[in-house]
Write a structure and sequence with these properties.
This protein is an alpha+beta fold. The chain has 11 helices and 9 strands. α2 crosses α3.
Length: 294
């Protein structure tokens, strides 16, 4: 699955290993879909897409991953001249969903059962230190495989929650998967703050409560470009500031945090639910975090 050796991007923080979680997530997705009533497939899952549409999108994600990383297939659509990455991805997703409109829910489940299991096996043997697809919301292109793998896991998990919400179920509270999702999403924090100027050593801390939560601290480095803020710095860089409180703190509950990162809730609404302290400009900058192509 490697494109080349992985880039050195220490500001992303320590690697995440999502590989062991794909098989269980695949099984949970199939269980969710198989429990649906016929009318449920017509419910809106995300704006503009029904439950059936979202299931078809997941099939497309699986086929795309297998074609690219397992089969080395180089065919397929390309961005139009002047088309942004975001516009290209949204267009490609919609074209796929439209093309699969004639496929029945039962056939979608059968196809997901097949290709989803193949994707889980593919990631089970992935080399986390290899280079892989860029992760635009983290500012990494190419990205290390550990981040690409974790990003892909968050997509499957997030779409399953959207399916659950569409039929009146709450988010799956399983702490192991949610902990990996939140940790992955928070790797967007340095990229989120990239246009926020601050003295070297300034620290912005995001905390998420509960058994799946944690604390992520981005520190201003004084460097340019993608490494302007870092989730991983030595004491030699941060110096005496490590003994002080963070310059800004934003604390979310887990549900608000993941929904903010996927834009299921707006930054303003999320910050209204958060506990915050410190520099308000830094608080609001951190509240802009987004961990999907948006």
């Amino acid at each position: 699955m490697a494109l080349s050796s992985a880039p050195d991007l220490p500001w992303l923080g320590p690697p995440i290993d999502a590989r062991p979680l794909f098989a269980a997530e695949h099984a949970a997705l199939l269980a969710t879909l198989r429990a649906l009533e016929p009318a449920d497939w017509r419910r809106e899952a995300v704006p503009g897409w029904t439950v059936r549409d979202l299931a078809a999108h997941l099939v497309g994600d699986c086929y795309g991953r297998l074609a690219r990383d397992r089969d080395r297939h180089e065919g397929g659509p390309r961005p139009a001249p002047g088309e942004t990455l975001e516009a290209f991805i949204h267009r490609l997703n919609q074209e796929w969903v439209d093309a699969w409109a004639r496929v029945s829910p039962a056939a979608l489940i059968d196809t997901l059962d097949l290709v989803g299991a193949q994707v889980a096996r593919l990631f089970a043997t992935a080399d986390l230190d290899a280079a892989s697809l860029g992760v635009s919301w983290a500012g990494a292109d190419p990205a290390p495989m550990w981040l690409d793998c974790a990003r892909e896991f968050t997509e499957f998990w997030t779409h399953r929650q959207q399916l659950r919400h569409a039929v009146g179920q709450e988010s799956d509270p399983g702490p192991r998967a949610l902990a990996v999702v939140l940790d992955t999403f928070m790797r967007a924090l340095p990229h989120t703050l990239r246009h926020t100027g601050a003295p070297v050593g300034t620290r912005v801390q995001v905390r998420v409560g509960g058994p799946s939560g944690g604390t992520w601290t981005a520190t201003a480095t004084g460097a340019g470009g993608a490494g302007r803020w870092s989730l991983a710095l030595s004491d030699a860089v941060t110096g005496e500031r490590d003994a002080r409180a963070a310059d800004a703190v934003v604390e979310f509950d887990a549900e608000t945090a993941w929904r903010l990162c996927t834009r299921g809730i707006s930054p303003a609404a999320a910050l209204a639910l958060a506990r915050t302290e410190g520099d308000r400009q830094l608080v609001e900058a951190a509240g802009q975090i987004v961990s999907v192509v948006h």
